[in-house]
Amino acid sequence: MKYGFILKMVLRGWWRNKVFFLIAVISLSIGLAGTNLLLTYFIHDYFMERDNPDKERIFCLRQDNPFDDGQKVAFASIEAASDVQKKIPGVESFMQIQEYVASVRYKGQTYSDLEMIGADSTLPTFFPVDVISGDLKEALSSPNKIAIRESVVKRIFGKEDPLGKTLETESEGKRTAYEVVTVLAEQTQSLLKYDVLTSKTADYWGGATFLKLLPNVSAEQVEKAIRADKSIQTMMPDQTQYYVDSLPDLYFVQSQGTSQQPLPFIQQSQVQLLYIGLLAAILILVIACCNYTNMNLSRLMQQLKMIHVEKLMGGTLREIRMQLLGDVALTVVISFLLSLLIIADVLPVFNAVLKSRMTFAFFFSGQVLPLLLGFLLVMALVPAWYASRRLMRWSYSEYKMVSNGKRKHILMAVLVVVQFAISCGLVLATCIGEKQQRMILQQASHYEGLIETGDMFSPPAAPLKAELEKRVPGIESISLSLGSVLNSPIRELQIPQPDGTEKRSYLLTLYSDSSFLETMHIRQLTGHSPARLQQEYAYPVLVNESFVRQLVPAGVDPIGRSLQEFDTYADSLYVIGGTVEDFPINSLEKEITPITIHLPASSALGKANVLHIKLRPEDKEETIRQIAQIWEEINAKQAFQYMDMHALFMERNARFVSFAQVITVYAVIGLLLTLFGLFGITWYATRQRIREISIRKIHGASRWQIVWLLNKPFMVYAVIAYLIALPITYGLLSNWLEQFAYHVSFSILDWLLPFLVIWLVSVITVGIQAYVLMKVDPVKCLKVE
């Protein structure tokens, strides 16, 4: 009965302060959701392969990439991997992975987004797999047998039993039928990410290689032995060497100093983004805690009155403490439950932005749930215990002295400055992140609406091009090319420098028709149009700005000169007819490479098998459908596949776009929480000064004078917070921008905007409170006081 009475008193208190209670719950819910989401993301990605009992003995065999300084490639030939196991002491076994670039077809439906890999039969001994039904050994040891994930089963087969069903895959123009023999469970925190698993093909000759070492054998020992054995071949003998790297070295992608090989079938996490997420979680938690403290401080006066009334009515010390504990604890629990609902709604978007694979069930796993419950317990019990302990010792007059004292005002000022400083930093980070994102999007505009179809295994594309131009109205422009743009091979360049050294760079060579620049939205800077250049020269070439900057001596006009003058490996027949603007093909963290665009005559493009197609955005889906239909009419033996060039380029810059999106979202959350916190502070401040303000109104103080009186301290807090936050945030952002070969700079608006935003939030919040206070009758107020 007593507990029912306590609950009744708590609910009555909430109802009397329903607006204040609602704001407190919303503020805490948003803060807990943001904190728990990012904290769980950090745990999920940081402790990859946590349940793998052999993770400390598994290593990836990598070697130097001969085409990119500082990059390691997870590759070894099958002979090299076998030699390592046979010749190097301490190596227990090896496992290799083959990536299938294939689409999956079932009953006329094509699935192009499934990740399919082949692996050795030793895969389960390296990375444990949970089997729902079927025989995994059969899928990994027999040809044309596959295992598929449970989510793929639901997507393709629905409620049908998939075992024994046949799926058809198409890769490099070949169609292969596979029997489904195994269904695999979804796995969290798994290094390997795949939807379809099968054995390696008979013509497999090398790929990503994993080694399992014997217990108590060090990776350094094995690495040294591999390098000493010259019979184990690398991609370029005497120029490249092997590395035996741990699993964290493989999936933690460094942001600066090294270039990490992207592996579609490996869950790779950006180290920088991971720690930025953890930092954002901590900052949001700090703001939420400041709000929580402010809200509770604002209610202490009313709670103290309630305590003394209950004492007079015969309430015991235990009952009063239970009531205070119940008030705080229930508020925190309700906020926590609401935060879980928020997380459930935003998790799909969060996963899409950060390329994560978290599930909502992971929040209730043994890794996360105890931490969240412990955090919840601390949030619920500590403030309630402290408040009840202090309040029970104070008389009403003693509390008024403390609440109006210097110590209390200093505490409030510190809380406000901390909130303002964090919000200032987040706003500045948002400005710079958004500017850098806009730069990426501007560079990506070359590829908007562009698709690429065909590859080296496709038939000549000229007949298809002619049909598309006649029958598909949704095409703006179409170019016939001899190869891909974003996946084109490159050639190494050694560029002599004035100091006698050589700079290592790369040359990208493209071959296409005269409409290429129009299709790719590339601006020509000098020279005649491509069509006219084909008339003037037998072998015309266009070069980009980077080519001129790196290979052409200063003051030399390359127009009309032989390409061989600047690139000794080029054919002397090629003549430079003009220059074009730089356009990127990789991440903006790398400098744009020199590019040559060859414009062969139409007769020389007879065997070209790649089309670059610019689509009208309003008809994109319908146009692709029409292209697919005509493709299958002409190339009946090969399924239609295409690459969205804009999506691929954005994927190569995804981690930088993700940074901007994460910071923007959390800056908004930080500002919302700051606004809620300011409400609590101003609510407290205005009611503490209501007698003073009433007297000022009676003596003729204007509305604006009172508004300024209330706003002035918050203006001072904003200035202090701004001066604290700016140098710290500037240092962090400058370090982040250094990884880009092309990055934005700080502008005057970037410097001013954080202060203006914080000041505006303060003015609006305090202004609302001042407006409400101005409507209070000062005479009635003084009578009450």
Question: How is the topology of this model organized?
Answer:
Elements: H1 2-16, H2 18-46, E1 58-64, E2 71-73, E3 76-77, H3 78-87, E4 91-100, E5 103-106, E6 109-111, E7 116-119, H4 123-126, E8 131-134, H5 136-141, E9 145-149, H6 150-156, E10 166-171, E11 174-184, E12 196-199, E13 206-213, H7 219-228, E14 242-246, H8 247-251, E15 252-253, E16 259-260, E17 269-270, H9 271-312, H10 317-354, H11 369-391, H12 396-403, H13 406-444, E18 450-453, H14 462-471, E19 475-481, E20 490-496, E21 502-511, H15 516-520, E22 524-527, H16 530-536, E23 540-544, H17 545-551, E24 575-580, E25 595-598, E26 610-615, H18 620-634, E27 642-644, H19 645-652, H20 654-688, H21 690-698, H22 703-737, H23 748-774, H24 778-784
Parallel strand pairs: 2-16, 7-12, 9-11, 15-17, 21-25, 23-24
Antiparallel strand pairs: 1-2, 1-13, 1-14, 3-13, 4-7, 4-13, 5-6, 5-10, 8-11, 9-12, 10-11, 18-26, 18-27, 19-26, 20-21, 22-24, 23-25
Helix pairs in contact: 1-10, 2-9, 2-10, 2-20, 9-13, 9-20, 10-11, 13-20, 13-22, 13-23, 14-18, 20-23, 21-24, 22-23
Subcellular location: Cell membrane
Organism: Parabacteroides absconsus
Protein name: FtsX-like permease family protein
